[in-house]
Design goal:
Dehydroquinate synthase-like, alpha domain; 15 helices; alpha/beta; about 400 residues; globular; Rossmann fold
Length: about 400
């Protein structure tokens, strides 16, 4: 049990579940008195399903437009283009419908609108910078517009106030943060997730689990975040295995969504993540590894590196994974094997000759500085990477 600390509550109004996405969004728009609702949607949902058409119809005269140009590893070019289009139609509510990249874009679009940032370089100086005294957040003003997230994956980014955006000029994924980048509402609709490819669904579930695991291991957690995250890890473990057996099970999908929500409770409450997040961000921005593969590959090695500093926490994690007799790293690896997901860096074309650059870029992350076992140099990062090679 933790003996000292604090718990922070975040500026989110509500999580809505048990209703179809289009119905819930219409009700939220009415509640917020939003007149110009701008959608940032997954292109596949927009062009290959009728889900976005149903949302547009439900919004009726409140609907202001749709942007579906967000690709993997959300880029500066994509977000400033979406922000300009949203500003042009006087959007007063931004809605993300899709996976983690879409949610990340929608979180920063209101900030770009507020500051009239419509060119890639305009975001320079707003990124979160790691310093010896802790993270230094960019000078964003509070936005006039807020956003709502309707996730189609389990990534969990919808439950925190930070966003990841890739600067393609430097091949560097950066964190941007402001409390009001937190979605004002999250809408969970398991029906919507039936369109999500299975590998993406399972991989994003491990990414969601990573939020909970790193929060339980963090020095800045609280009894409340520990309890929520451990429950979330258990729900994700059970739900992912159930989906593997029966992809059409709405109950299993609902279980996974609840697990992602609970597992993200530490991150949403500003518990600092660790090396798995720091390295994962670099693998995506620098090496092009799909975000949903990063935790699958790195988390077990990070757990092993952190074991000397987090023994008690890792015992709780192994129990949550229903493998109390194993070390936490082995328990997580066992789950990944059951899900049939890739487990090594070589499987995603990341090789030892790239480790030095990955380590150098990971040292820039604020999460490297908050890893529970100190990381003092790029060599420590390389040690972790070698375990995952």
């Amino acid at each position: 049990m933790r003996e000292m600390g604090r718990h922070e509550f975040v500026p989110m109004d509500r999580v809505v579940y048990g209703k179809r996405a289009d119905v819930a969004l219409r009700e939220e728009a009415e509640r917020l008195n939003a007149r110009r609702v701008y959608l940032i949607a997954s292109r596949s949902l927009n062009t290959k399903t009728d889900e976005i058409d149903r949302v547009r119809s439900a919004l009726a005269e409140r609907y202001a437009g749709t942007f579906d140009g967000v690709a993997e590893h959300t880029t500066r070019e994509q977000v400033v283009r979406a922000a300009r289009l949203a500003k042009d139609v006087d959007a007063d509510l931004i809605v993300a419908i899709g996976g983690g990249s879409v949610v990340d874009a929608a979180k920063i679009v209101p900030m770009c609108m507020e500051h009239e940032i419509f060119e890639e370089g305009g975001l320079d100086g707003y990124e979160t910078v790691s310093t010896p005294q802790g993270p230094n957040f960019g000078p964003f003003r509070a936005p006039k517009a807020r956003m709502i997230a309707i996730p189609s994956t389990l990534s969990g980014g919808e439950y925190n106030a930070g966003t990841l955006v890739t600067d393609t000029r430097r091949k560097l994924k950066q964190i941007f943060m402001h409390p009001l980048m937190m979605p004002i509402s999250v809408i969970l609709d398991p029906e919507l997730t039936r369109h999500t490819p299975m590998t993406l669904w399972l991989g994003s579930g491990t990414r969601a689990m990573d939020h909970g695991i790193e929060a339980v291991c963090a020095a800045t957690g609280s009894p409340l975040t520990d309890a929520a995250c451990l429950r979330g890890i258990r729900l994700l473990r059970d739900g992912l295995l159930a989906i593997k057996d029966d992809p059409e099970s709405l109950e299993a999908r609902r279980l996974c969504q609840f697990g992602s929500w609970l597992s993200a409770y530490g991150l949403s409450s500003r518990v600092r993540m660790g090396a798995s997040h720091a390295i994962g961000h670099v693998l995506g921005g620098t090496c092009g590894v799909p975000h949903y593969f990063c935790s699958v590959i790195m988390l077990a090695s990070v757990l092993r590196y952190n074991a000397p500093a987090t023994a008690a926490a890792q015992k709780l994690i192994a129990e949550a994974l229903r493998a109390p007799d194993l070390e936490a790293g082995a328990a997580f690896e066992g789950l990944v094997a059951q899900l049939g997901l890739t487990r090594r860096l070589a499987h995603v074309q990341v090789y030892p000759d790239q480790f030095e650059l990955i380590a150098k870029n990971a040292m820039l992350s604020m999460f490297t500085g908050t890893n529970p076992r100190p990381i003092r140099s790029p060599e420590d990062i390389v040690e972790i990477l070698k375990m995952a090679a």
